[in-house]
Write a structure and sequence with these properties.
With 200 residues, the chain is mostly beta strands. The protein has one helix at 3-16; strands at residues 32-37, 40-46, 55-57, 68-75, 81-88, 95-101, 142-143, 150-156, 167-171, 188-193. It starts with a helix and ends in a 7-residue tail after the last strand.
Length: 200
């Protein structure tokens, strides 16, 4: 499937399948769900070590199988975009870096590719704070509470180019902002595939 038809297929799914939320506990909802409001993309999934569903964990000690994730992209007034990331069922009191990446999740952590950038850094990998910052990328770092749940949100002033941001990756620590390290957050622990930019 080429990327254009992949986007079309994702858009068709968004129309056909109602939103599935995190639900009230284990067993609620399906392995993964995609849904939409008029102006929102929503993906809910359960982390598994195999990558068949929307959400995959590469390090189950940090992001256990059965933990749940929900990502929402909502068009904001004035051309901006709001993103929300929710997690459930993770270890308590743990901080994760989290960002939108350019490619879908795959069997290997690096399959998700680099970070999505509104203005692309001509130098890759991008570790220049002029480009690798939370206004030019989608950063959703979070820390779990005593129950292992967490929520983060961020709003940027732009819209995602369709098909160019396809996932959210959870990393092992908070995102670095220093020159030469900006945007890095350690190993990739888990990933959820999200068809960002498919709402207009
Ligand atoms: Cu990342």
């Amino acid at each position: 499937m080429n990327s254009a038809s992949a986007v079309a297929a994702a858009a068709a799914l968004l129309v056909a399948v109602p939103t599935i939320g995190l639900g009230s506990g284990p067993g609620s909802g399906s392995d993964s769900g995609r849904g939409s409001g008029r102006d929102a993309v929503t993906v809910a999934g359960t982390f598994r070590t195999r990558s068949g569903g929307a959400a995959v964990t590469y390090v189950p000690a940090a992001v256990p199988e059965g933990a749940r994730v929900r990502v929402e992209e909502r068009l904001a007034r004035g051309g901006g975009t709001r993103f929300v990331l929710r997690l459930q069922g993770l270890p308590a009191g743990r901080t994760f870096g989290a960002h939108a990446h350019r490619r879908a999740c795959g069997p290997k952590p690096d399959d998700a590719g680099p970070h999505y950038q509104n203005v692309k850094d001509p130098v890759q990998p991008s570790v220049d704070p002029a480009y690798a910052n939370p206004r030019n990328e989608v950063w959703l770092d979070l820390t779990t509470d005593a129950h292992g749940a967490a929520r983060a949100e961020t709003t940027v002033a732009w819209r995602v180019r369709p098909g160019e941001a396809r996932s959210v990756v959870l990393h092992e620590h908070a995102t670095d902002t220093r020159a030469g390290h900006a945007g890095t957050a350690g190993a990739r622990l888990a990933c959820v595939t999200v068809p960002f930019g498919t709402k207009r």
